[in-house]
Amino acid sequence: MIHARAERVTKTFGGTTAVDAVDLEVRPGEIVGLLGPNGAGKSTLVGLLTGSRRPTSGRVELCGGDPRDPRSRRTLGVTPQETGLPASLRVGEVVDFVRAHFPDPLSREVLLDRFGLSDLVRRQTGGLSGGQKRRLAVALAFAGNPAIVFLDEPTTGLDVEARRDLWQAVREFHAGGGTVVLTSHYLEEIEALAQRVVVLAEGRVLADDSVEAVRGLIRVSRVSLTSPVPQADLDFAGLVSVERTGDRLHLLTPDADRMVRELVRREVPFRDLEVRPTSLEEAFLALTGNALTGNALTGKDQS
After folding, report:
1. Could you tell me the pTM of the whole model?
2. Crossing angle for the helix pair 130-141 and 160-175, nearest 10 degrees?
């Protein structure tokens, strides 16, 4: 049984399309990373698959049923980007309250130990630090011993050590047969956990492949230089995009060394050369422009 499925799913808010004709299947035992810049549609897609949002068109399915059906939702654990916790309740009380909604929950002790919360069991949630609250919010997604967990930007606000501890807890859940869908705009986080990556931008799927394949797609460098050459004359092979800011040209390319050699070979006049890695968002924006004009990264038409 497919644990989560979207078939030609679209979600619009007014005149804005947040998710655009997305097809996605999450199979049992997978860790799937949803990767993309802010505003790519990751959180909206998670909301559709978990039943907190209703699609404008298309069909969604959770463990063989409707995500809004309580019977389907008993198989589900979710940590949204923002979680409100009752400030006056103690950590142990919050955990027990959530566990009581499920037929076969994890024990309080196992859950607290797995997420490093045992020492906080008697603390009121209102007195927790931001990172401690986030760890508790993530832990609650696993309280019901779910079949599938959706984690939306789970490590926001966590320090490096807490982030790696959370990753280990996710790995333990997966090792026991659990299925995970993880959203992030941090490539490092997806690399640490996922076997399969779905790249989203502007509400559309641009790639659905292994971590290594997707890493290659978004490894783009930015070559900046000052040159009088018109932007339109830079029709080099391997050029992802080019833009001009004043007298500066900015070239995005997967092979910066080759690009510089080509500039020299063609005797392009330039000065003040600078080469640096792009941010993930810059790479996505460049690749999105190519994909949405018909060159989808998957090699398939996503429309």
Report:
1. 0.78
2. 10
